[in-house]
Amino acid sequence: MKRKKSKAARIIAPVLGLALLFPSISPEGAYANAGKKVKALEFIGMDAPITADDMAKAYSAAFLKVTYTNGYIKSYPLTYNTLFKSTDVISGIPAGVVVDVNGKPIMDTSVADKPVPYVSDAPDANTLFSVKGAAATGLGGNPLSLLTHYEYITSNNAGKSAYGIIPASMGLSTIDQNKQTGELKVTDVKKVDFSAVGGLWIPCNGSLTPWNTLLSSEEYEPDARAYEKDPTQTFVSSFTKNFYQDDKKVGNPYAYGYIPEVTVNANNSTTVVKHYSLGRFSHELGQVAPDRKTVIFGDDGGNTMLFMYVADKAEDLSAGTLYAAKWNQTSDKNGGAATLSWIQLGHASDSEIKTYIDKGLKFSDLFETTDKDTAGFTKIKTYPTGKIEWLKVKPGMEKAAAFMESRRYGAIQGATAEFNKMEGVAINTKDNKVYVAMSYVEKAMEKDAKNEDPADHIQVAKLKAGATYELNLLGKQVDSSQKAIDSKYVPADMKSIVFGEDLAKADEKGNTAVVDKVANPDNLSYSESLRTLFIGEDSGMHTNNFLWAYNVDTQKLSRIMSVPAGGEATGLQAVDNLNGFTYIMSNLQHPGDEMLAPEPLKAQINEFINKYWDNKRAGSVGYISGIPAISKLSEGKE
């Protein structure tokens, strides 16, 4: 006969069971933290995946450890949740479908007699937020809105590259947030209408403004000089013909390479404007500072530039002043360090620059050119060519050049055009810091050993695994002409704080960078409440890309998610206390693309990726759950 457990034993046993599962959980009872303050938050990371099955999945095995002032400890396991795959049919359409100027799916006719809609496998930026006055979802939860970029299509139905040829798109998802559990469910998806702004060029990351709109992005701006010489050397013509479904439609490279701002209205309609006065370059994203008028940008590609914009009015990005930075090096180690000085490029309004575009100004209208050192011409080297050019701005074209050829004009003015793969940007409001990811610290960032380049401001040691930089934001700064900059959030210096480590040769999984350090940082997002910088990888050096949590106080780095081999971790957004719940939005794109794993492991992974991700046709839109709102922790409600 089994001895009957006492009432106390029946209560304590499950708690002890949890303590065995998560050793950091104290068996003192669910409310031992009541009335106590949080002393420390710590992400306990996960190992890199080992099996081929796990290497083909998106998952988290990490957890958040919370320590209270009374010594009580509680752990919260993290879970990755897929909201939908880009190939899932929702509201009658595949979520990642690409549409033309009339909102109709653009058809892939690459396989004769088998036309299918183009569907992106590359979801990128996520912006989850609440819209005041939004209608109920019908599921009883809080209605939320989710805007998602679909950056490109890796290949057409015949297996050939479709990158840049087909217009990009953006989806607006209606999300139901369970009021008790915080679980998110998609109830509707529709495409955002970009017909008023000529379509959406390649969108990468994005950010939520303090006034509840999305700052989108258009990266890898088409080279107007190359287009004028030979239109087939850019994607402009194919993009335009596909968007307008008109083979006679002529494109304009100066119509793309800007920051679109998207507003979601209470009736679920959207409004889109392009901010031409924010400059034209390879916009990874724009991040707004707490003053609601200073914007700091990432500029993706090789030979790129660090830009800043200061609007005339808070919460209005339609007019302002554009600046470019000069790097004044103080260290060459681990990605390097420098002080920054700022060069004013000019002041403009969106309407002014749009007038230039509508007039059909060409590259040759803005610049005179030569092919050798010539008096009056400036020798520069910038993206998108990455080649030496000799340019002179034509009289009266200074403003047009500053905002339509921001990087070329900035280089003429002496700004640094040597950054390489400058990606995500995130702001730490409390500490007045901004973080910038440099995916690959190499090429133009290395010392010019041959003394051939026009300038050599950056001379750091090569670090192919890349680095994330911290920039201090200060007020009372002046530009290079000693004119005051009207902002309290001007980056004054720049140093690397998280950096990878290159390997001399690949390990058994195919990694060419140390697997327990960040390699090739891309997406960044900062959580004020968690004091944590989240870093997503776009690595050509890790077989699996990871999402990392970096505590800015303790400098601890923790791996919290793995995405399928050959896929990129995208769509990163730390969402603090949205109706009492915290989320880390996170997507993945192009799973299985260009895998580093050696055979036979590569073939084994491919089998699982084809099974899980629709034969490599699908990306995933999702989020990490399990992190409680910090306000609830402090109140003892968790």
TrEMBL record:
The keyword Repeat does not apply. Residues 1-32 form the signal peptide. InterPro entries: PhoX. Keywords: Signal. It holds the Pfam family PhoX. It comes from the Bacteria. This is DUF839 domain-containing protein. It comes from Cohnella silvisoli.
